[in-house]
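Moderator note: this is an archived Q&A kept for reference. The question asked for a predicted structure of one protein chain; the sequence and the answer are reproduced below.
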Amino acid sequence: RENDMNSSEFKSGGIAPCLALCCLLALLYTGIASETQAKDIPMNDMQNGLMRKKAHGDLDTVWKRLLDTLTAAKAPVFATVDHKANAQGAGLDMTGARVIFGNPAVGTALMQAAPEAALDLPLKILVWESPDGVMLSWSDPAWIAARYGADPDLEVVKKMRGLLEKLTNAAAGM
């Protein structure tokens, strides 16, 4: 079932969690904006486990391609977060940024090998606007595995990496 993080269910937690989330997002965005304006965006940063891919098209086009690709792959979408809408709701402004939470069944074996990997799962793909255009970002499953003491060469990690490559290539219009 798809959950909209702007729904009344989400808001029922009160205003304090929403304000805390918005403040965190504003701080995160400020760091991203100043970093991306000061230097080129490295496509992959294995030290921090970040993978990036430049996409063809505007944010909405790339977002739609990602959702269509997930639907075609029969990957369940458990939640989407529209950070721009949430920031605007708190009286803040930021460029479009959306996160999608994907198929946790792929990561079950990794969570069995390293239960704390659940902190980074299910898999997520960020679609966001940089000064260079629309980008896709995600955490490398091998980095996630290593972070929690699991073997980054596990077969499930290879499957997760392949899935993310397939999804992001399609969403990027490659």
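Archived answer notes: Residues 1-39 have pLDDT under 50 and may be disordered.
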